[in-house]
Amino acid sequence: MKKKPGRPSDQAKRLAILDAASRAFFEDGFAATSIEQVAAEAGVSKVTIYNQFGDKRALFTAAVERECEKMRGYFCIDETREGTIRERLQEIGKGMIAFLSRPEMIQFERRIAAETEVEPAIGHAFLDAGPWRMKKGFAAFLSHANSQGDLKVKDTILAAEQFAALCKGMGDLDQRFGRDVSDADRAKRINGAVDVFLAAYAAP
Amino acid sequence: MKKKPGRPSDQAKRLAILDAASRAFFEDGFAATSIEQVAAEAGVSKVTIYNQFGDKRALFTAAVERECEKMRGYFCIDETREGTIRERLQEIGKGMIAFLSRPEMIQFERRIAAETEVEPAIGHAFLDAGPWRMKKGFAAFLSHANSQGDLKVKDTILAAEQFAALCKGMGDLDQRFGRDVSDADRAKRINGAVDVFLAAYAAP
DNA sequence: GCATTAGTGAACGGCACCGTTTAATTGAAC
DNA sequence: GTTCAATTAAACGGTGCCGTTCACTAATGC
Fold first, then answer.
1. What DSSP assignment string belongs to A147-198?
2. For chains A and B, what is the number of CB pairs under 8 angstroms?
3. Which of A63, B118, B121, B181 has the largest count of CB atoms under 10 Å?
């Protein structure tokens, strides 16, 4: 019933195109990437790309969606691990910052931000797949810590934001605008974040 | 001694070019802006632009420097105003967020971030003129509040970062990726920031 | 006057790339 | 084997824009 007559479209080629497109778009930029380039890299004819995706912009969107899909797996915080609350926070902060400060991620965010302006849906897709997902996951952790008596947090969503923001500090900005950030700087920010967070939210 | 022979270059035209370039670059983007467009808007011949700036990229850099120059004035925190420390923090947070969440500023940051990749000096110029300047200004305020006995902050630079980060929360991200942020949200984040900051740093 | 430099308008060469078309080939299903 | 659609290579039309050149005019110093 669902089968179309004729030669089926080659899914392997579709994936190859998406891979090549992701690499090119997120490494070189949207404007700096030509369809011909992507086609060559994917070992595919240009027309195939137009047949499957229709448009340069649509190809970009598809690449973003694929990348967001990959991202969805990363934000699972295990609420039931052992250790003091301080240790747990430290660990979570470290993991988060390690994930976010990868150069590819910095680059990826820059691209998405630039294209959000002409296609807001792209920005929203990213927010859904990344930051918001992480925020909710961490809020759930806080909620659990609340019920364990480790913390006393009223607004878990707000507190989740605050912890993430504290860990980033301005290292975020520095990286986005081309300054290297050392591991020592990162560690210092994370330690400071945990201190401040616990000063505000530790159970008495 | 310093005078060159011949007709002097028209500074008024130079400024007109920079104005037009700023508007075009930061509103439409670098790639989407053509020199011809800028020339027309500035009421100037294209050749004049090439004579004075040499290059499209150089024109962009000049526009960024000019914009950063404008920015330098904005970060002066009056350390000696009256009011409780809580009120002062609230006020500073509000001012900062109001300045940073203007749509033009969001856009400007997106452009700079995108071009930082190909010209790191641009990102550094921005960091110097904006975020770092603000950080130092606020750290000085914290230092003053320390000596007044209002706060007990060990690392004023780290604490300055933390306060700024707390105020932004994820509103920053939301805006960069195209989500509207309400004034209520902003107020909530600022209040939360002050609460957490004071919990960690208020003098006993 | 004259030399020198700045600015103008128009045109040009050149390049890169999008998106389409054409004609031919390949692969699956019936 | 026939039919239908996917795929391909090549070429094309079109666009947009950079950076340059040229001939000409305008302002300044001597």
1. HHTSB--S-HHHHHHHHHHHHHTTHHHHHHTT----HHHHHHHHHHHHHHHH
2. 120
3. A63
Please report where in the chains the tokens 């660990």 appear, as a residue.
Answer: A91
Distance CA A119, CA A25 (A): 15
Q: Which two tokens stand for residue B18?
A: 């920079």
Question: What value does the mean pLDDT of chain B take?
Answer: 94
CA-based nearest residue to B114, from A113, A193, A135, A155 = A113
Burial B133-168 (b: 16+ CB within 10 A, else e): bbbebbbebbbebbeeebbebeebbbbbbbbbbbbb
Report which residue type is found at B98: A
pLDDT tens-digit readout, B92-121: 999 999 999 999 999 999 999 999 998 999
Strand C: which of residues 113-172 in chain B lie with Cβ below 7 A? none
Whether nucleic acid strand D comes within 7 Å of the CB of B170, the answer is no
Residue A151 β-bridge partners: A202
| CA quadruple A176, A182, A185, A188: dihedral sign | positive
- pLDDT beyond 80 at B65: yes
Q: Please name the residues between 164 and 203 in chain A that touch chain B, using a CB distance below 8 Å.
A: 164-166, 168-170, 173-174, 176-179, 188-189, 192-193, 195-197, 199-201
Q: How many other CB atoms are there within 10 angstroms of residue B28's CB atom?
A: 14
Instruction: Tell me the residue type at B5.
Output: P
Q: How far apart are the first and last CA of chain A?
A: 65
How many other C-beta atoms lie within 10 A of the C-beta of residue B196?
Answer: 23
Which residue is it, tokens 């969606």? A65
pLDDT of residue B132: 95
